[in-house]
Amino acid sequence: MNDRVVPEPERRRRRPTKQGTVLSAEVIVTTALRLMRQHGAEALTVRRLGAALGADPSAIYRYFRSTDDLLLAIADELIARAQQDWRSTGDWQADLREIGLRIHAAYQAHPQAALLAAYRTTGRENETRAVETILGILRGAGFPDPEAVAIYHAFVDQGLAFAAQDAAAAALPGPAWAADLDVWHRHYARLPAETHPNIAATARLLVTDMRRSGYPLALELLLSAAAARLERVRATPGRGA
C-alpha cells in the first residue's frame, strides 16, 4: 500500500459497497478486528478486507497508507475500547487498577490483534488520551514528575506485556492450549517430594492457579510498590506533594 489517502470529506461521498456498507476508517478497523478474531492475524490483508467489505481492495488505500498504518489504527481502537465509559473515582490506586484491568480485557477480547498491536506506539488520539490520563492520575496523587513517568512506564509495560502473553495463549488452537495447561497436572503434580519438595508441596495450588492470568496480582503488587514509593516521597523533606 502507498500514500494515497483521500481527505475525509471525499471519503464520505463514496457510494456504498456491494454489501451496502459506506466505507469509513472506523468500518474498516472494525471489520479487520472481526476478521482477525475469526481467522487469525493472517487475515489482515487488503484482499481479505476488501472481500469482507464487498469493496475493491484498492478502496482501502483511501483510508490507510499501508497495512502498518491500519495496524496502528487497530491498536488505537483497542485503547479506545479500554477507555470507553471510564470515570475517575479520585482514588489514584483504584483508578489505575481499573484502567489496567480494562486494557488487559480489551486486548483479551481480540487476542489475534493483541499479538500484533500490544507492543506498538501509535501517537494517535486514543493512546494520547490514555497517556495524559494516567500521568494525570499519578501527578495528581502527588508523585514528582520523575516518579510519575517511571511508574507510568512500568504500569503500561506491565499491562501490555501481560496482555500480549495472555493473548498468545488465548490464540493457541484449542488442543494446544489444553495440552499446555495439562502439563501442570500431568507433569508437575506428579513430581515426588524427595526430588522436588517445593513443587510437590504446592502442586494442587499450581494446577489451579496456572489456569488464570497472573496479571491481576502483578498489578496489585505494582500498585502496592508505587504506594510505598509515594509514602517515601512524602516523608522526604522538600519532596512531599
Please summarize what this structure is.
The chain is mostly helical. The chain folds into 2 domains: 8-65, Arc Repressor Mutant, subunit A; 88-235, Tetracycline Repressor, domain 2 (Orthogonal Bundle), CATH 1.10.357.10.
Written overview of the protein:
With 241 residues, this protein is mainly α. It folds into 2 domains: 8-65, Orthogonal Bundle (Arc Repressor Mutant, subunit A); 88-235, Tetracycline Repressor, domain 2 (Orthogonal Bundle). 66% of the residues lie in helices and 0% in strands. It contains 11 helices and no strands. The protein has helices at residues 8-12, 25-39, 46-53, 67-83, 92-108, 111-117, 125-141, 145-170, 174-186, 197-209, 215-235. The mean pLDDT is 90.
Question: Which structural traits does this protein have?
Answer:
241 residues; mainly alpha; Arc Repressor Mutant, subunit A; Tetracycline Repressor, domain 2; 2 domains; 11 helices; 0% strand
Q: What's the arrangement of secondary structure elements?
A:
Elements: H1 8-12, H2 25-39, H3 46-53, H4 67-83, H5 92-108, H6 111-117, H7 125-141, H8 145-170, H9 174-186, H10 197-209, H11 215-235
Helix pairs in contact: 2-3, 2-4, 4-5, 4-6, 4-7, 5-7, 5-8, 5-11, 6-8, 7-8, 8-11, 9-10
- The computed structural class is mainly alpha
Specify the overall morphology: flat
Biggest sheet descriptor:
none
The number of domains: 2
- Corresponding CATH architecture of the largest domain: Orthogonal Bundle
Could you report the average pLDDT, rounded to the nearest whole number?
A: 90
| CATH homologous superfamily classification of the largest domain | Tetracycline Repressor, domain 2
Rg calc: 22 Å
Which fold name is given in CATH as the topology of the largest domain? Answer: Tetracycline Repressor, domain 2
- Helical content stands at 55-70%
Estimate what percentage of residues fall within beta strands.
Answer: under 5%
Q: Which quaternary structure do these chains form?
A: single chain
Beta strand count: 0
Low-confidence stretches: none
**SSE string, helix = H, strand = E?**
HHHHHHHHHHH
Discrete helix count: 11
Amino-to-carboxy terminus distance: 50 Å
CATH class of the largest domain: Mainly Alpha
